[in-house]
């Protein structure tokens, strides 16, 4: 999996990056990839993937998030997408633990002190699995009624370092899973 961390500019997430080949169209990276960037989050209704959010007319917004856009071309089905998403969320919790932060994973969301730190969605396109994970940097622009927390509030001030550290950890995890899947033979 190829990793690209964009630090030289902000990129806002509106939901359209969940489309297949977004990374190839925007950055020239073809194949399995993870792009990490920082920017606002404002998912428009027409871009919402989660039908529960859509039915509930929920707003998905934040003024400052770290975004992970993952695309995998291995096995295109929603079970694999959801499993990979939860693996990445669990790995992010482990990395936050290395910072001394106690987390709780509820499904595909990360909580700290009972407050929501992240958002996430996993889906499939006709050719790939697509995952978006957003981690609040600061609690600004969050929809009313969402009890949220951000990286800066939990003591992570160097956001670029956090992007680097988590990006490497997630890509290593994916590559290890892929390697492990290749070294076994079929049971007979």
Descriptive notes:
The chain has helices spanning 22-27, 51-55, 78-98, 159-182, and strands at residues 2-5, 33-42, 61-72, 104-106, 109-112, 115-116, 118-124, 129-136. The mean pLDDT is 93. The protein has 188 residues and is α+β, with helices and mostly antiparallel strands. Helix 3 (78-98) crosses helix 4. Helix content is 30%, strand content 27%. The chain is globular, with a radius of gyration of 16 Å. A 5-stranded mixed β-sheet has the order 1-2-3-8-7, with helices on one face. A 3-stranded antiparallel β-sheet has the order 4-5-6, covered by helices on one side.
Task: Name some characteristics of this structure.
alpha+beta, three-stranded antiparallel beta sheet, 8 strands, single chain, 188 residues
- Biggest sheet record: 5 strands, mixed
Q: How many β-strand runs? A: 8
Q: Alpha-carbon distance between the termini?
A: 31 Å
Order of helices and strands: EHEHEHEEEEEH
How large is the count of helical segments?
4
Strand order of the largest sheet: 1-2-3-8-7
Shape: globular
- Beta percentage is 25-35%
User: In which range does the helix fraction lie?
Assistant: 25-40%
* Radius of gyration, CA atoms, in whole angstroms: 16 Å
- What is the average of the pLDDT values? 93
Secondary structure category: alpha+beta
Uncertain stretches of 5 or more adjacent residues: none
């Amino acid at each position: 999996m190829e990793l690209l961390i964009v630090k030289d500019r902000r990129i806002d997430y509106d939901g359209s990056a969940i489309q297949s080949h977004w990374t190839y169209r925007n950055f020239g990276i073809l194949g399995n990839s993870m792009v990490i960037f920082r920017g606002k989050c404002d998912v428009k209704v027409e871009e919402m993937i989660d039908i529960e959010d859509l039915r509930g007319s929920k707003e998905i917004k934040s003024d400052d998030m770290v975004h992970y856009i993952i695309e995998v071309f291995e096995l295109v089905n929603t079970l694999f997408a959801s499993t990979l998403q939860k693996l990445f969320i669990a790995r992010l919790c482990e990395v936050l633990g290395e910072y001394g932060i106690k987390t709780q994973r509820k499904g595909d969301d990360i909580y700290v002190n009972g407050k929501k730190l992240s958002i996430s969605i996993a889906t499939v396109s006709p050719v790939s699995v697509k995952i978006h994970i957003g981690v609040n940097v600061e609690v600004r622009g969050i929809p009313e009624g969402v009890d949220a927390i951000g990286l800066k509030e939990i003591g992570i001030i160097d956001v670029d370092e956090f992007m680097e550290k988590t990006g490497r950890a997630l890509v290593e995890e994916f590559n290890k899973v892929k390697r492990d899947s290749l070294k076994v033979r079929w049971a007979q």
